[in-house]
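> tool_call: predict_assembly(chains=four)
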Amino acid sequence: MAAKIVTFNLNGREIDVLVKPLTTMQTLLREQLEYFATKSGCRQGGCGSCTILVDGEPMASCLLPVEDVAGKEVTTLEGITPDLGLHPIQEAFFDNYAMQCGYCTPGIIMVSKALLDRNPHPNRREIVEALAGNVCRCTGYEPIIRAVQDAAARMNGQQGGA
Amino acid sequence: MSITNYFQPQSLDEALIFLDEHKDALLVMGGGTVTMPLINEGVSAPEKVMGLKNAGLNYIHQQNGRVVIGATTTLSQVLVEAPLPMLGEAARNTAAWTIRNMATVGGNFFVPPPAGDFATALLALDAELKLVRQGQERFVPVSEFFTGFMANVLQPGELLAEIHVPIPQGQTAFIKFGRKVANTPAVVTVAAHVQFDGALVQAARIAMNAVGPHPVRARKAEEILLGSPLSDEAINTAASTAAEECEPFTDAVASEWYRRKMVKVYVSRVLKNIAGKEG
Amino acid sequence: MAKLRGTGMAAVNYPTGMNLGGDPSQALIHATTTGTFVISLSSTDLGQGLKTVIAQIGADALGVPVENVMIDTADTDTGPHCMGTFASRATHRVGNAVVMAAQEARKVLLEVAADELEVSPEDLETDGQGNILVKGAPSRSIGLVDTALAAHFKYAKTISGRGMFMKPKSDVDPETGAMDPDSTEAHACTVAEVEVDTETGEVKVLSIKSAYEIGRQVNPALVKGQIEGGSVMGMSHALLETTAPYYPAIDHSPGGFSDYLIPGSADIPEIESVVLEYPSSTGPFGVKGIGEMTANSPIPAIVNAINNAIGVRITELPVTPEKILRALEMKDKE
Amino acid sequence: MTQGKLNAVGQSIKRRDGLGHVTGKTVYVDDVKFRDMLHLKMVRSPVPHARIKGIDFSEAEKVPGFVRALTHEDVPKNTYTILCLIGVGPDEEPVLAEDEVRYKGEQIAAIIAETEEAAMEAVGKVKLDLEELPAVFDVEEALKPGAPILKHWGTNYFVYEGHHCRRVRYGDVEKGFAEADFIVEERYQTSPIEHAPTETTGCVVKPEADGRYTVYTNTQALFFTLDNAALILEVPFNKLHLVGGTVGGGFGGKVDVIVEPITILAAMKTGRPVRYVFMRDEEMRVSSTRGAWRMYYKDGVMKDGRIVARQVTTYADAGAYNRHTPYAVTKHAANAAGPYNIPNVSIDAHCVYTNRQPGSAMRGFAVTPASFALEVQMDKIAETIGMDPWEIRFINAYRNGDMKPHRKVVEDATLIETMQAAAEMVGTELPERLKAMHSNDREGGNHG
């Protein structure tokens, strides 16, 4: 079974990976590259905990063959997290208690990043619609919506209060 | 045995060559949002898979009174470009942003009920599917594409390449009714396109999803509307007829009884929506 | 076709601790010469916040800043026994064990500081900022690190403590059911407001507002998290989710988040809460417990609100649109 | 109990694990990997009730990467012991099915392979020779003569010290009903629900050089799991070293000790690390749920709103096996009369077996269904006697010093104060009479 070399940009760095046909990005990230921030909640495309960005678009890495990202820019939570300190979205989630068990958090932060990159001032409806594919069983979503609004404020220069 | 090949044709022609070469052994995949879960769970273990994402079939343009959509255009693209109001609505009501970035318009014709809401909108708009095989192409109306549960007219070696949607001349309306506000399977979906000659209904298309083995037309209900004004009385009769002629099923989300009830409610609401627009 | 609104309420209690007791938890505390106090447990954090609230309890029980308290948990080689995380028991049980261990450790801490400051331990107090001060003469003080170093290198004393809490196991009289099941009771009263579409049977929960009485709140933000999460889980249990949509038949069981209906971000009602604190007689600092109860009162409050809106009392969960339509049809026949 | 001012308790400090969560650095069980780790997948029953006549692994063994299979014969003590550890017996659930399977999805045989795909493929190639047996799914049907019997002691109910149900008897309900102005009855039914945490149940077991086994697990109860696993595997307790404590949502669903014993056994038999993590459809269709509860309430009520008698007959649907349900039924019995001061109470709470995915512990553990029934019943009482729903609750609310039906004196009660706060929050104007009530207004007395 012919493995293939696929070249793509992962978090700002060009990499070549050797993968069997139809290996998913989730399996590559978690099993081969040990990027564990991308979670594995269902492998059915139903929970959003495996969301990564491909050319800035959020996608379910559990359903995405590695070969499909050849030549593209892939971003994972490891890529958003600065070496020192936190991204404003991470600060906002932390300050707003926007997580409890934390398992859904990476996927939700990725979708929030994609949303805020595209729409710096999302209203509540736009935030809620963007997050429709992310399951959180602990928080009841309200603190997450507050956190995204707070993140927007921080990223637009106003000091977001917790 | 696990997957031996994942073909990524760079053009439609290359895709057809692969298809001819491997025939039934080749599983054709659009966005993967239906195929990949089955592979992940070991329910499906194909040897050869062909992904059409790079075959240059994702585009939306207008061509002599028709909207032409490439088969691997994603639902997100349709939502962003919203070539027709109903198509924007249908896309917005399917799955969630992350999945819409992957799911394709063409893929929506190969999904198990109650999925297929986008195909339902295309059914109501009398869309036609351009099916191609090496050296040949043919157009099949969506209304004749499905032949049964997960069955269609596609011949071996044939691919769905494009969807041609005549610009609707009348009023259109679409409602997807699910148990949750978003990202949820349909209890029932209704899409309608009604053309008027003055105050009288000149042509009517009512398409329904989740109440049959695939998206279906409520033909008897359509006939009732022809030639008369879209009055409340005509709407109620049509809605009751649609409820009788549909073949709902039971699943985790809704029972047959409830789906049949909701066909009556939502065919009526969609038609009233259109009547309201007609003013 | 009508959209009718209704309001319903429900008032509940919830017992703290595993039923019948007999669910012990232990805690060990030791200071290291870094001035850090390590609390060793084998308790688990499911997201409810144990690793945070136990640090807060330990800090105040020791009289040190919470930054100086580290939780080392969930390793059966290093942590003493804990029954587990359920029954809204951890803050109460583990908290009590930590307070006990902290008292022992604090005693040694003050003894060493007293020797260093040449006073008696009774003359000392801790300011919770990392200083041990002579009462009435705050300028005379010693820091935690210095005290820990002195204890270790000068006085050869270990600043450590052991803690244990168990509500003795009570058994049940087979005839009368007499038993002593719990350590204290938390309470909640929820008012739900709904809108019912009588044509489709759909219920939209407009708001879930609850008052809770849970004894001392250790971390109000985490308490609010339990109330908000529980309200949505309660709403889902009342209206949406089940593994057996046609119970008692086992058919059509959902296999994933697509057909197992739990609320998404677009389904949530307005949620408001107020928390009363009537300290319990048995918990650390008057703690009771909240984790398990927060889905309970929203469920009947929603069912009662539906009845208030459309005059049908559905007594089978989940209250699906189908059950509402069938009940309305029967009601019209009467 | 402690010194001076509180500095930390009462403060909304940020979560200790928050930074790990928002950066994705928190380590969960399925982030634990070892170079030579094997994967375990379970062969499950396709039918709700059947006799196992044979299992054929011949095709499965041919799958490249197949390592070995485990059946009940490999399990030293093939019985789950979770209840006997908390003084409730007998235990009756096999770790791997022996002669019968009693619910669709029940574990029959474990397949261990080099990769997850190989394990899944091999599971698909195991041939089961099953003789399907009649199944029962309704709790009251299961108690009728002629119903298929699920338990070796010959009945479909758990025996509570000689009785067919957990009983509470307080006062005389018949006398209460006779005095009552109204009798209010209703049947309440909940359906099973799944915990559905975003992280599925799972563990990774690594054999250590010193002959011990490290078990990375997302159980909610480490020692409880350790003790059970050691009893099943018949190894000294200190052979096992469990590590965890970071759980991606439990809600009561990760305290059934289902994945750890078989995975430790697999590691023992192969000498290699083994990973067994539920797929989402296993979590949904096979892992334990909150059981379904059927509750019949019958209340005797006076015109003035006082409830003088409450009779509760409950049937808890344990599904095919005990898990925690017999224990939950006892907690249900302690709470089924509700936070109300009622002089005559009779409760019969049955734990019944059906051919269904087992019910077990879930957030609210048997009190959730009781609260649902109780608070809808209180509204039905109010409607029947023409009283405001708030008032009926204030009148009957228990006070400190009252005696509960299970003979415990009420203390730390604040139902009244909580209702008053809720009413104020939503702008419900309570009559002065109710505003004046408080939970200590009957200190020491009963039925003030």
